[in-house]
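so my prof wants the structure for this chain in the tokens format not the other one, which i didnt know existed until like an hour ago. anyway here's the sequence
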Amino acid sequence: MAREPQFVGEYAAEMNTIGSIAFQVKYRGFVLVGVGLVANVSDRPLSWKRRTLGAVGVDEPIASESIRERVWRVRKGEGAQRGAAVMVGQSSDNDIILPEYTVSTQHASFSFDAAGMSITDLGSLNGTKVDGVLIEPLAAIRIKDNQQLIVGRICFNFLSGDSFSALARSRSTVP
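here's what i got, hopefully its the right format
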């Protein structure tokens, strides 16, 4: 079994292979596409006992090869805990694993209902932002296609399946 693509360019190559219609069917769900880092890690005081480190904001996203154009599908992970929410965090028992010092063990969750997708910050140390606005912990916030999300210090574009297909098509040779 072939591994799933990880970066936009790899998804574009798959679109070249299977065609745009098959691609849209296969990848119809929501995705997060990495933009970069929007903070630096703050110094850890000697008395610091937490696993998660604080973050200090920067003016422009910092390009990071491991994050820029990396794709995370918003879906339950294989072997992940059962439940309706898609969990995001540093721990390996999350559906979307972000092994990053400024992301809490269980940082945020996505939930889907008939009205669309919501994100909830789970009381994380560095918070979660939607379009630059820090969301209140434990409050579900409705999110829409093409909004920017920041989890810890990682900046993402939140895309629907249609927008993701359009992005892959813009990088592929498929007309």
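also thought this was worth mentioning. The first helix runs from residue 8 to 18.
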